[in-house]
Amino acid sequence: MKDKKVFVCTECDYQHPKWVGQCPSCKKWNTMVEETYQPKIEPKNTRTSIISDFSEPVLFKDIEMPDYIRSTTGIGELDRVLGGGIVDGSVVLLAGEPGIGKSTLLMQICSQLENTVLYVSGEESKGQLKLRGERLGLYGDNTYFMTETNVDNILAQVEKLSPKVVIIDSIQTMFDPNCVSIPGSINQVKECAIKLIATSKSKCFSVLLVGHVNKEGTIAGPKVLEHMVDAVLYFEGERFQSYRIIRAIKNRFGSTNEIGVFEMTDVGLKEVPNPSEVLLSGRPTGVSGSCAVCVVEGSRPLIAEVQALVTPTTFPAPRRTSNGVDYNRLCLLLAVLEKRLGLKFSQNDIYLNVVGGLSLDEPSVDLAIALALISSIKDIPIPENVLAIGEIGLAGECRSVTDMQKRISESFRLGFNTIAVPSKSITSDLKIPNDVSLISVQSIYDTLKLFKDNK
Ligand SMILES: Nc1ncnc2c1ncn2[C@@H]1O[C@H](COP(=O)(O)OP(=O)(O)OP(=O)(O)O)[C@@H](O)[C@H]1O
Ligand SMILES: [Mg+2]
Questions:
Q1: Which CATH number fits domain 71-273: 3.30.1300.10, 3.40.50.300, 3.30.70.240, 3.40.50.720?
Q2: Cα distance between residue 266 and residue 5, in whole Å
Q3: pLDDT value at position 239?
Q4: Residue identifier of the C-alpha nearest atom 12 of ligand 1
């Protein structure tokens, strides 16, 4: 009998017999994908959850304190993002573009962990794994490798070996023989993940799942996968640059703002404990259009360089490209600068770039973007020792940002002694090092002072 097809929404699981552009249930666009129809069998009194310790309701005071144990991965930058290491029995999803280094990072963890690890690859042969392991210097007397895609066979081996950590590379290649859909489809990814997570919670081993991303940059498969796991980490970076950043999007056992920075080398991923220094190396001097900024990622301040290039346009509609900063944010700042300062950006092409493949979504980067743009259009360089921090509002006002003390200390440590900050952020409890002078910026008009003095 021919399999019946159905269209399933990746966001809310709604099923529809025909393809539609907008999901009739959650109203999201372009989320319907074709699947093999599976009748939903929901026998009465059957629990459909991944947590096994169901019980009668209990009073909060009577719940026993669990003793969560964290195992360090041996890789400081990864531990930082996880909130101090992997919690035993937790499930972590590591997502990233093809070739970014997901398998490399997980294999590096294997050689650092002291407990038994089971590494399951559904994508590469044992020979390929051996080659990579040799290159990374993996000695591996605690890691079992297995090339398998059938989730039942994997769980049988888990039963036999009782590993403390199971690595699944990748969840999209796994299949559950009881589910009729093809591997990688929404149903399969969901079913396999449920089986693995349920077993990990009952047997108390940690699972690290590799997740592919689709062309929009989100994790391929059902959205519900992100809800089921304890932590979701994204591996980012420019394909052709060697720096890689791990960011936590969700973490049930730690903060979500932390980032870990790595450099891809021929012997694997190397930690970068001082990313600011790396990001500033090779900075041009005496050139217009460059401004430094200090952002705070989690608990760590990070210095980045924003570069702008403003050139007269030859196109009927001027070009705007933005790399590392939200495109709409750039358009908004251009509109503010044009309206408030009368600068003619509309007659110019504009290219904006954050050096090092970093993506900055914090509002504190606004002032540095504005300064880089003004510097480029006026062709007046900003002195190397100047750094700018602040959010810009639509009226051209400069608004205060959080963690000012941390930002000033880090900026000073890296040799910036003239820091433009929102006037509201200069409070009496701010400790300013002796050699640092602060430029108080109340509105975007105050930034013009910087260019007059340096003409
Ligand atoms: N010999 C080598 N020297 C330096 N870097 C290498 C070498 N071999 C591979 N790489 C780097 O490792 C990256 C591939 O890493 P890895 O296979 O871990 O990525 P992945 O995210 O698992 O990819 P996929 O999604 O295809 O599984 C390459 O893009 C390259 O940057
Ligand atoms: Mg891989």
A1: 3.40.50.300
A2: 46
A3: 62
A4: 101
**CATH assignment of 278-453, given 1.20.1250.20, 3.40.50.300, 3.40.190.10, 3.30.230.10?**
3.30.230.10
Across 254-282, average pLDDT: 84
Nearest-atom index, ligand 1, CA of 96? 21
Residue 131 in contact with ligand 1 by CB distance below 6 A: no
Residue 444 has pLDDT above 60, yes or no: yes
pLDDT beyond 80 at 453: no
pLDDT at residue 455 in the model = 46
| Pocket lining: 96 vs ligand 1, CB cutoff 6 Å | yes
In the sheet that holds 348-354, the strands lie side by side as 320-323, 348-354, 300-312, 290-297, 386-388, 418-422, 437-441
121 lines ligand 1 (CB under 6 A): no
Q: Give yes or no for residue 363 having a pLDDT over 60.
A: yes
- Please name the amino acid found at residue 65: M
Cα distance between residue 149 and residue 246, in whole Å = 26
